[in-house]
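Page 47, continued from p. 46.
Same chain as before, 277 aa.
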Amino acid sequence: MAGKVALLLWAQTLGFAGTQTTWIIVEPPWMPAVLWDRVTLTCQGLGTTSATTWYKDGRCWGQQGHDRLTVTENGTYECNRTGTGLSLPVRVSDDWLVLQVPARPLLEGDTVTLRCWDRQTNTVTWVSFYHEEKQLVELRNGKELTLFPLQLHHSGRYHCRGRLKDREWVVSAPVTVTVHVAAGVGGALLFLLLLAGVTVAWYWRHHVAARKQQERAPPDPSPPEEGKVRYTHVVSSKQARRSPNVTVLQDPQETYVELWGSHRQPWEPGDIYGNVL
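Result:
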């Protein structure tokens, strides 16, 4: 189930679904599906399950109101849900030889395996794979071709050719392979660039604000010279007792007082503190 959800998310994210609001999930996830593989189709989209209608080759098919359908006949299947439109068609083949590709978006850089599948299972030999009528490889016993890494030039029409046990050479119907650019990579890169830009802007904003705050702050007062005492708002004890409510000035002025000791000699700092009552 997680794989199905991931597939749908990829389809919606990369725009493969386009304007489709109804789609079909194929199990097993191969395209085209083959009748002998016990295929199950599930209709997904908006609306309720009871509003599901199935079509085979353009005609209503099976019991209505069910979102799951077990395939019993080859043909082209579609589903519809009221108000959301018709899904893209899904073909179920019953040919003797079928070239299958994974039923998922094929992205540039991915690994994809194409398989040449026969109705009798494991009886085909000398399988050849072709891209746009050009032979790619011939396998005596193998039936799969792996493309890695996928490139845009891998897009195109593929088919396979092989020899069945009780038949002559058989050729499959062509299948179109489309390789898409992984748009999610570009989106992730853009997100990282935006994140880096926001981080740098935040840093510079706070850095400049801190510098302006430092420039507005008053400089630290320098220590007084020896022999001088710095004070502000000197109020005598008598004045303080007469004026219980003392108003503090908003812009205090700094005053320096030079204290002289006996014989007009400057007092040492220790003498000053020693004579303070």
